[in-house]
Amino acid sequence: MVIGFLIRSGLVVGAVYYSKKLGVWGSPEESEKFYNCVKSQLRPHVQSLEKQLPFEVPSLPQTGEVRFLAKHYYNQGVKNTFHFIEMLPCYAGQLAKKTKDTFNEFAQPPPKSSN
Description:
Layout: H1 2-22, H2 28-52, H3 63-107
Subunit structure: Component of the mitochondrial contact site and cristae organizing system (MICOS) complex.
Protein name: MICOS complex subunit MIC13
GO cellular component, one term: mitochondrial crista junction
């Protein structure tokens, strides 16, 4: 459990660091430059995939749509963070109860076999 959490945390930190290094979290001009660079690099690959797929792939979103989606998901992240903080006492109580129950279960002697 701890190792999985450390691996996930490391991946998130690495992704944030790398995206910051690329300019995603910089000024709006840097972010738009990065977006246009990625879009132009993906265009040939998308076109080759479109020929192989039996359905039509939607075009990449425009810059305005990306801004809207970024704001939307940022706001959702803030709301979910505050919801988690609000529920933290409840989660802590549940964890304490489960921990207590588990230790009580371990403290019980094993059942006697009927041999």
